[in-house]
Amino acid sequence: MAKGFFNRIPNIQYDFKSDGKLFQAKDLFRKVSTWSYLQEGISGYNYYRVAEGERPDVVASKLYGDSTLYWTFFLVNENLQDFNDWPKSGQVLNKFIARKYSGTTLIASSSTDIISFDHATEVSSKFSLGEKVSQASSGAYGFVTHVDPSFNRIVLNSVVGTFTTGSSVIGSDSEKSFTVSSVAEEKDTVNHYKNSKGFKTTVSTANTPVSNEQHERLLNEDKFLIRIIEAKYIDKVVREFSSLVRE
């Protein structure tokens, strides 16, 4: 039976905090060098479309007759770093989006409403993560989990009450304030814009907005088609990979 992917990667001693204290960790740089080697040295690639809800071990059993070879999918697909990147079923994806984008977004008319700098006094003014933001007119409040001046917005979680457009909000610590131009669920706000050639951009003019939810669904859809090593080469790759990471 083949060992799991991380069991094959050697440990190293690493000083995470630069304080002289060493901790044991996996040498993940080995994966980078191995990926380069595979790109250049292996021609026996093919592609497989994962069925919704199909687990990596099930796919490995189907393709290679060995469910423990699931780790090879993470080895040869750059967009699959761990199990969280494996294509999600519709139900799992819905829960993932709801959890990741659970906040309420308050949008301002200008980026300087979110972050600004007074060149005369050399004092910056911005909302800070974790601070309480309140709206006096409605009594609503929430706590900042994301500050995004690129899209003139802040994201609040643990919201109590209802924020409304046209009213002012203020941060309890920064004392930063702005008039809310619009309110939206975080999943519905713009992740990026797409131009006529399909490229990402932050420019809204003449481009198509892609929401956070749409962005996650597109990313997930792309992951259903995975690169695989052809069965006739799998034993050779496993042997060479094991030898390479131990060098």
Sheet with the most strands? Answer: 7 strands, antiparallel
| SS content category | alpha+beta
- How many structural domains does the protein architecture include? 2
Determine the oligomeric state from the structure: single chain
* H/E series: EEHEHHHEEEEEEEEEEEEHEH
Rg (CA only): 24 Å
Strand numbers in spatial order across the main sheet: 11-10-7-8-9-4-12
On the 0-100 scale, what is the average pLDDT?
85
What is the 3D form? elongated
Q: How many separate helices? A: 6
Descriptive key words:
247 residues; elongated; 16 strands; 26% helix; 3-stranded antiparallel β-sheet; single chain
Describe this entry's structure for a reader:
- With 247 residues, the chain is α+β, with helices and mostly antiparallel strands.
- Helices cover 26% and strands 30% of the residues.
- The protein has 2 domains: 6-87 and 230-245, no CATH class; 99-189.
- The strands form 5 sheets. The chain has a 7-stranded antiparallel beta sheet, with no helix packed on it.
